[in-house]
């Protein structure tokens, strides 16, 4: 919410998606108009928080034990009461003057040479948080119920973007591993999905290889079962007719330890697939650019906001994906290009029943030269992940939604999914 100094406890537009409706056929469900409630209509139920000089409320996380909300803004950390957003604690976290001067000397503006909070993760009674720190990213471990108490400070490189303009995502596993998808360098030309901290070896996606990541904008990440999933949009390397953006779901095994000779310090289990969100028709209308996701673990559903390209007519849609559909696509086949002049063709998955395995099988079990060559060549899946319904759950023209949240409530005779959508 860059450029604003208010946090609202509800987002700006509200839609209802009827997932199950007994005694009504499926076609009727899809054509029923969704009741929509505007921001103004829910105004009386909104709770707001404002703070002087605080802008860019970009990261929120919960402390469920204390029923508190922790918020990261530019140069500030806040603890708020969950019920009414009243302030519990405000902590200033600015860059020092020497760091700012170094930032200015590299041609950056005063606006850019601030500390934008981009990682905010709860682990037990600690808060792990990282900021851009005037293009010198830094991370701290703090006491969750007293944010002034800093236990240690480490470099934010490969954990937090240098620039506040670069999208990123991060998560912390129960085992203490940090997974971050971010730009690894000052100019932002080396994006990576990177694992650090914890007891497992640091690993990343292959460097300067567009078939792995091609100018990605990272959106979200989730720790699900044996895998860590990442959702992002990127320039489609497989698209031959000009530049276009596709949305992706990618995953890695959490116990991946990298290769020995090939793919050393690099993921051996990284795979990605395209997500399709489109309005059906004789010529489908595609919403190619993923902006936000929300995971409902109790139903294994991933909600996503998809928009048109910023240079085209503004339109947004919400599509919903089942985790099983994503897993099925990752079983293969792959989409493979022999060389830069070859066509992209389907290639059978050499390991269609792939499992992450267990650490007690031995650190380098099954890491043969052939398997590492396959892991290096076969990244992109041939099939496209399709949503649960042919028609998007929600569509709106002349709008670009940017954030979402979803709640499931029990109605009289069905489950109702309430979708909160925000612009700006």
Ends apart, CA distance between termini: 6 Å
The largest sheet is: 4 strands, antiparallel
Mean pLDDT, nearest integer? Answer: 88
Q: Count the E strands.
A: 30
Look up the CATH topology of the domain at 57-162: Thrombin, subunit H
Strand content: 35-45%
Q: From the alpha-carbon coordinates, what is the Rg to the nearest angstrom? A: 22 Å
Question: How many DSSP H or I helices?
Answer: 4
Main location: secreted
Pfam family, one: Sema
Domain Sema: 34-424
Protein name: Semaphorin-2A
Summary keywords:
424 residues, mainly beta, Thrombin, subunit H, four-stranded antiparallel sheet, 4 helices, 30 strands, globular, disordered N terminus
How does the SSE layout of this entry go?
Blueprint: E1 6-8, E2 13-18, H1 26-31, E3 36-38, E4 48-50, E5 59-63, E6 68-73, E7 76-81, E8 87-92, H2 97-105, E9 117-123, E10 126-131, E11 138-143, E12 146-155, E13 169-172, E14 178-183, E15 191-196, E16 203-204, E17 217-224, E18 227-235, E19 245-253, E20 271-275, E21 278-279, E22 285-286, E23 289-296, E24 301-307, E25 315-322, H3 323-329, E26 334-336, E27 345-347, H4 369-377, E28 394-397, E29 401-410, E30 415-423
Antiparallel strand pairs: 1-4, 2-3, 2-30, 5-6, 6-7, 7-8, 9-10, 10-11, 11-12, 13-14, 14-15, 15-16, 17-18, 18-19, 19-20, 21-22, 23-24, 24-25, 25-28, 26-27, 29-30
Structure description:
- This protein has a domain at 57-162: Thrombin, subunit H (Beta Barrel).
- It is built from four helices and 30 strands.
- Mean pLDDT is 88; it is low at 1-6 and 8-31.
- It has helices at residues 26-31, 97-105, 323-329, 369-377, and strands at 6-8, 13-18, 36-38, 48-50, 59-63, 68-73, 76-81, 87-92, 117-123, 126-131, 138-143, 146-155, 169-172, 178-183, 191-196, 203-204, 217-224, 227-235, 245-253, 271-275, 278-279, 285-286, 289-296, 301-307, 315-322, 334-336, 345-347, 394-397, 401-410, 415-423.
- The strands form nine sheets. Strands 3-2-30-29 form a four-stranded antiparallel beta sheet, with no helix packed on it. Strands 5-6-7-8 form a four-stranded antiparallel beta sheet, with no helix packed on it. A four-stranded antiparallel beta sheet has the order 9-10-11-12, with no helix packed on it.
- β14 (178-183) and β15 form a beta hairpin.
- The chain is globular and about 55 Å long.
- The longest helix is centred in the first third of the chain and has 9 residues, at 97-105.
- The protein has 424 residues and is mainly beta.
- GO terms for molecular function: chemorepellent activity; semaphorin receptor binding.
- Residues 34-424 form the Sema domain.
- InterPro entries: Semap_dom, Semap_dom_sf, Semaphorin, WD40/YVTN_repeat-like_dom_sf.
């Amino acid at each position: 919410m860059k450029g604003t100094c208010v946090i609202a406890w509800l987002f700006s537009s509200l839609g209802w998606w009827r997932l199950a409706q007994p005694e009504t056929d499926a076609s009727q469900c899809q054509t029923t108009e969704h009741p929509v409630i505007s921001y103004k209509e829910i105004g009386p139920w909104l709770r707001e928080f404002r703070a002087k000089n605080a802008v860019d409320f970009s990261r929120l996380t919960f402390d469920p034990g204390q029923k508190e909300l922790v918020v990261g803004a530019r140069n500030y950390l806040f603890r708020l009461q969950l019920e009414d957003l009243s302030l519990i604690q405000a902590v200033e976290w600015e860059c020092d003057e020497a760091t700012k001067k170094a930032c200015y000397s590299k041609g950056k503006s005063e606006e850019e040479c601030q500390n934008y909070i981009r990682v905010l993760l709860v682990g037990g009674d600690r808060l792990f948080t990282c900021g851009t720190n005037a293009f010198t990213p830094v991370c701290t471990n703090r006491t969750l119920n007293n944010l002034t108490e800093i236990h240690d400070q480490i470099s934010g490189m490969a954990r937090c973007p240098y620039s506040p303009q670069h999208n990123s995502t991060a998560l912390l596993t129960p085992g203490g591993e940090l997974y971050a998808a971010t730009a690894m360098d000052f100019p932002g030309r080396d994006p990576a999905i990177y694992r650090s901290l914890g007891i497992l070896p640091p690993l990343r996606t292959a460097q300067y290889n567009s078939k792995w990541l091609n100018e990605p904008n990272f959106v979200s990440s989730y720790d699900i079962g044996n895998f860590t999933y990442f959702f992002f949009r990127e320039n489609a390397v497989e698209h031959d007719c000009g530049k276009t953006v596709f949305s992706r779901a990618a995953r890695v095994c959490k116990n991946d330890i990298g290769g020995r000779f090939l793919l050393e310090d690099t993921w051996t289990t990284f795979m990605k697939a395209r997500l399709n969100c489109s309005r059906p028709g004789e010529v489908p209308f595609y919403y190619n650019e993923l902006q936000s996701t929300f995971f409902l673990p109790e139903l294994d559903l991933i909600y996503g906001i998809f928009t048109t390209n910023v240079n085209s007519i503004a339109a947004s849609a919400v599509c919903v994906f089942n985790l099983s559909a994503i897993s099925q696509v990752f079983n293969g086949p792959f989409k493979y290009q022999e060389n830069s002049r070859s066509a992209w063709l389907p290639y059978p998955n050499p390991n269609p029943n792939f499992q992450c395995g267990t650490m007690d099988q031995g650190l380098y079990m099954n890491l043969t030269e052939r398997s590492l060559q396959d892991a290096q060549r076969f990244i992109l899946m041939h099939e496209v992940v399709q949503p649960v319904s042919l028609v998007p759950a929600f569509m709106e023209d002349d709008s670009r939604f940017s954030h979402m949240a979803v709640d499931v409530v029990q109605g009289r005779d069905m489950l109702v999914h309430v979708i909160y959508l925000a612009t700006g």
